[in-house]
Design brief:
Helix content is 65%, strand content 2%. By secondary structure, the protein is an all-alpha fold. Helix 2 runs antiparallel to helix 3, helix 11 crosses helix 12 and helix 12 runs antiparallel to helix 13.
Amino acid sequence: MAEDATARWNPTALAKRRGLTTSYPLDLPFLVLVLTLVGFGLVMLFSASYAVALYRRGDAYAYIRPQLLYAALGLIAMWLASRVDYHIYHKLAWPVLGVSLVLLVLVLFMPEYNGCKRWLVIPGVGTLQPSEIAKFAVVLAFSHIISLNASRMKSFSVGVLPFGLVLGMVAVLMLLEPHLSGTLLILGIGAVLMFVGGTGIKWFILAGAGAVGAVGAAVAVMPDLVPYAASRLASWLDPFADPLGDGHQTIQSLYAIGSGGATGLGLGNSRQKHMFVPEPQNDFIFSIVCEELGFVGALAVVTLFVLLLLRGITLAVHAPDRFGGLLVVGFVVQVTMQAALNIAVVTNTIPNTGISLPFFSSGGTSLMMLLGEMGIVLSVSRQES
């Protein structure tokens, strides 16, 4: 990752036409990977969702129709973001973070859906998921802080305190929804950016010890957490102990994965998506991929995300300054970490946390934000290193 020549905007970038990058082409390999994921995701979403959409809403296109619209809008957003000089996000980092915090507060006053308050209902428009904006805001804020204070990241006051305050506010608000998986993802993204930015290892060790202490204190203060946690752990270790209750999602997901074998039952031929796998259009869409396309299809999905990460790291290393490199790292790590968590849940590698698969799961806010972020990565790739 190239060093910053200055903490301010690059004079060359400022000289470009009002922030538009026009001198260099987009990174074609990264663009192809993103478009492949979008296309693959739309095909699989329709295949996984048409049965449940027909059963629940009487319209087989109820999930894919809005997703196609959001994909089109997201691709336009990606193109626009790729044309804008990414240095403008220095000025937008704090306002975007402030807006995301306000939205995280507002969502707590929304009606519950499946026991959670994760969506803002916008009359005449639809729903908005503030946690998706919070991920974006954290990447911007952290990249901004680190790029301005690169030489002082080893100290507590610069390399730990501001990041801890930001993550603390976001995490508390998201836990109140509750949105545990989103909280873990944002904490993971923040930790990666701090590590790449130069925060001392000793602070990570102390943070780990503090987390253990916080869990112990929570158990002491709220003993009801113990049976709840024990129940979730037992369901993860042996989902067949409660096949009609806590273990139902995991069992049906594993049935779908096992049914696929090496090459799958064929696109559109899943049996488990017919009201057996809960939320086949969302959190458990990967199990439908495995059932219809088999191990080959699952491997293709994993490979695409790994290639996206590797190409993103390459772009970050060759970024013209630290700010651009951190933006790229933050966004590609967000995508791949979320994909890894989703696949781990679907395969029962970790307990069920309820997290979507990027580019595949139904969700307009997520898809548009993801494509906008990929546009910023492409903007960085347009700058000369």
